[in-house]
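Consortium newsletter contribution from the modelling node. Members have asked for a concrete example of what our holo predictions look like. Here is one, prepared for the arginine complex that several groups have been discussing at recent meetings.
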Amino acid sequence: MAQLWGGRFTGNINELAWSFNASITFDQRFLEVDVRGSKAHARMLARQGIISDEEKDDIIEGLDGIFSDVKSGKLIITDTYEDIHSFLEANLIERIGDAGKKVHTGRSRNDQVALDMRLYARDSVVRMAGLLKETIGCLLDMMRNNLDTYMPGFTHLQKAQPVTLAHHLGAYCEMFKRDLQRMKDIYERMNYCPLGAGALAGTTYPLDREYTAELLDFYGPTLNSMDSVSDRDYLIEYLSALSTIMMHLSRFSEEIIIWNSNEYRFVEIDDAYSTGSSIMPQKKNPDIAELVRGKTGRVYGDLMSLLTTMKGIPLAYNKDMQEDKEAAFDAMDTVSNCLVLFTDMLRTLKFNKGNMEKSATRGFTNATDAADYLVGKGMPFRDAHSVIGRLVLFCIDRNCAIDDLTLKELKDFSELFDEDIFEAISLKTCVEKRLTIGAPSAEAVKKAIEAGERFLADFKI
Ligand code: ARG
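And here is the predicted structure:
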């Protein structure tokens, strides 16, 4: 057991307590960020005259050496160390001797781990933003290709009014745009450096916290040492934003699962993203979409776990906070995997446009437009609503659509019907006449696509 403490102890720690306490099995992910942070700390210490330039150079060289040896497999991280910080410090001392013992001057593992998590999460936010941009880009492509792919729009999972596939996909595009903005918001708030907070009360060394922050590309140092070591708000915000991404992916997955069902047959999922059944030879299951939907619960769980961990913790650092890592890592891994796979599945999804259009012509999706037609001829809307309601009932009885009736039959319901009714309630008219901002006509959707393109081009994090 290699540990950073022990001077004030006379007995040995219980073996189970040691492994219960240790975090090396999961915080070894911090190898790169811990090295990055320690190098910046050493540079600052040397600039402030707290260590010499030679010692700083030795520390940097030593840390780089350890990092590359771990990467190449020459050096193995074992669980004889308590955590990644102990592993690095012990190995550094082994390599460079006394200078290695100075790297922790003016630092505590409390501000060290706070820094590591920030650096790791900040990298993850940037990567997640990149993945979201891919998803949005993919949706914009699909929208461009489906401006006149008509389909029913639903409320209560009942056919309501016709829309286009481009418009339907555009709804998800807006959701992912908001998700992307959230990444930027989080980045802006989290991008402050906690290093230099020490265990909780700063240090008496003349540290230049602004310089360390600058070396690590932060906007500046955090402003309260006690908050610095115990703040995990940014992680909670991030996990909450990740949960929202999953909620969006899950809703979209559910639609794909419905569209892929035997009853709908709106889509064909590529073989690469579906699986078969071990017993039913005819089956081709939408497993990826189902798993994305399923993993949503897990990411919500990660958020709940962190919120619950943090709720009773007095200032400042408490060991409970070690529990932030597995939840945060799990959420980051899960969401990035889901985004990548889901977007790949989307790219290869085939739409059965004929089925979608046929479905849109059934189910009276043009009933509102038929009522609006009568309004256009001078009937008050409430009366028109009632006339078309009776008309729909008549059609249900006959198992036909409103468009299937003759003008003579229509006139039995209202004298205001004329030859132009058929044009007025055609699928194309129902969609293309909806021209207001955010509506489904090709003209309106084209503007939404342009806005999406501008949004992507302007987005910077
Ligand atoms: N493994 C610890 C964590 O993840 C590092 C900080 C340890 N600090 C301490 N005072 N024991 O939070």
